[in-house]
Structure formats: C-alpha cells, structure tokens
Amino acid sequence: MSTSSNPNAEHADAAARLAVFGSPIAHSKSPTLHRIAYERLGFAWSYDSRQVEASELADVIASLGDEWRGLSLTMPLKQQAFALCDELDAIATATGAVNTIRFRTVGDRRVLSGFNTDVGGIVRAIGAAGTASVHAAAIIGGGATASSAVLAVAELGALHVTVAVRDATRAARLGDLATSLGLTIDFQGLDVELPAVPLVVSTLPGGAGVDPAPFTRHAAEALLFDVAYDPWPSDLARAWEQAGGNVLNGLAMLVHQAVLQIRIFRTGDPLVPLDDENAVLEAMLASVGLSPTGSTR
Question: Which residue is catalytic, options 78, 256, 263, 266?
Fold first, then answer.
C-alpha cells in the first residue's frame, strides 16, 4: 500500500466515498479512471457516479455523510459548485467554475474547498501530445469550459486568442478574463473561418450541432483539442482529420485532470504528486484506450 509523509494526507488508507455528479452522467469515464488509480495506489476508497441536476446540488451535498471525502463535478454543475464552496483556489476563482470539491472538517463544521483542475488537465494533455507552447490559439464555444481553455492557452504562452461563439454578448466574461491574463481577444460567429493558429480548442458538448466547415481550412497546420469524447469522434474531429489535421481526444484532458483531482483528494494540494504517479497515469490512460501521448491505441 502506498504511503505519504505529507502531513496534509488525511488517512488515504481509510475507507472513504467519492463520486462524480452531473447530468447526463451515464457516459462518464471518471469512475473507471479513479477506480484504477485508487487500486494502483492502494487506497481503500470508492468512487461512483450520480445523476444530479443543478437545482439539486446544494441539497444533495448537504445530505452527504462524514464518510464522503470529495466530489468531481461535470456539466451542468460547475458554476453551481463554485457558489457553494467556502474556499476556492486561484484557478477556480478566475474561471468562476469548480469541478472538484474536497470536504474537510473544522470543529463541528464541514468546509467545502473548491478547485478547478480542467485548466491543468488541458495544459498537461496538450503538453503530452507534444505541444509545449503556442503564440496564439482559437477556442470554439463560450461555456464554463471555455474559461478554463482561456487560462490554459495563456499558460501555454499564447498572446492572442480568438473565440468563436453564437452570441458574443453572453461570453463577455471571457474578454475580461483574457484581459486580466494579458491576452488580446476577439470574438467571431460560429459560421466564420478561424484564423491560422497552431492550436484550436473546441469546448462544444459532444454531438453539438455545429457545421465544422468554417473551422477546418487551416486544420493541416494546427492541433485540434476537442474536449468532447462521447460520442467520438465528434463531427468536428472527423472533419478535422479528413482535412489533414491532428486531433487530441477529450479523454486525454479527463485523465490528466483526474490525476490532479486525486492529488487534491489525497492531500488537499494539486501540486503534490502521487506516489509512483507516472505508472498511475499510464494505467489510467490505458484503461480508456489512450497511449502516453493521448492518442487512441
């Protein structure tokens, strides 16, 4: 069984419950990823999935017993989770979205600590695929994951980002976020050709009814990171490959952000690596059919 000398690691060898909440949730690969990691690490933790609507989240969390260690949150709960947390890490604060909650007890009170591991998941997945830096990027979609994508491309060194959305007025927060990060930003419609950039991040939900034609003219010169993974390939991913471009499956992000989540569940700190983390990561990638670079085996 793995052990850690970190004083913040609270009884990882004790039984604890964790889960991913969202709607829909049946397609989620998170239980597979977390369970294989816990087995490799020797953690006596369980991890399940539960269908939870945004209007139910507060009551469901309030009903959880002391055996619960934390939660993963997916659509459409990330912004509701943000509002429920007592503490927030810097990335969650910047994006306004929480995809990870760690529970801890202070006195007789349960404290909810909120984190966003999507940003790190995007950066780590793109880096593993061989792209360590970019000078500019484009993002398709303006939802909660788009905020994470803006932070991620800034971390990769981008100085400018183009955002393709149906309604730019509903994505104004992305402009404020980009400005705060020192990025210049412009918005365009979903029917306008994307500029020639080395990285395109699509944050559209799987199966979103968007015509991929305007986005693929420069596909051969760029990596498409499509955060969708079910159904796969998405219409955009298929069109991108047909146009000669490289595509990174959203499962790669899911795996890398899950590693960061497990770090948080273990110690409360996303920067503290797991024991034998490389082997754990490889097992997680293999469990969903991905190579170490994130490509489909």
Answer: 78
Range of the domain at 136: 119-251
CA distance 95 to 64: 26
DSSP 43-69: --EEEEEEE--GGGHHHHHHH--TTEE
> Is the pLDDT reported for residue 9 higher than 60?
no
d(Cα 73, Cα 245) in Å, to the nearest integer?
31
Helix (H) and strand (E) counts in the chain = 10, 12
Task: Tell me which residue of 62, 95, 64, 96 sits closest to 80, measured CA to CA.
Answer: 96
Structural domain tally of the chain? 2
Q: Do 157 and 217 share a domain, yes or no?
A: yes
Domain CATH code at residue 169: 3.40.50.720
Angle, helices 250-267/277-287, rounded to nearest 10 degrees: 140
Q: Who's near 108: CB < 8 A, 6+ residues apart?
A: none
Asked whether residue 2 is assigned to any structural domain, the reply reads no
| pLDDT tens per residue across span 209-228 | 789 999 999 999 999 999 98
276, 259 contact by CB (below 8 A): no
**What is the CA 139 to chain-centroid distance, rounded?**
15
Give strand pairing partners of 88: 114
Nearest CA among 34, 33, 123 for reference residue 70: 34
Q: How crowded is residue 268: how many other Cβ atoms within 10 Å of its Cβ?
A: 17
Is residue 109 domain-shared with residue 58, that is, in the same domain?
yes
Does the active-site annotation cover 78? yes
Q: Work out the mean pLDDT of the chain and round it to a whole number.
A: 92
- Rounded to two decimals, the pTM is 0.92
Cα-Cα end-to-end distance for the chain: 30
CB-CB neighbours of 172 under 10 Å: 12
201's enclosing H/E stretch is: strand 199-202
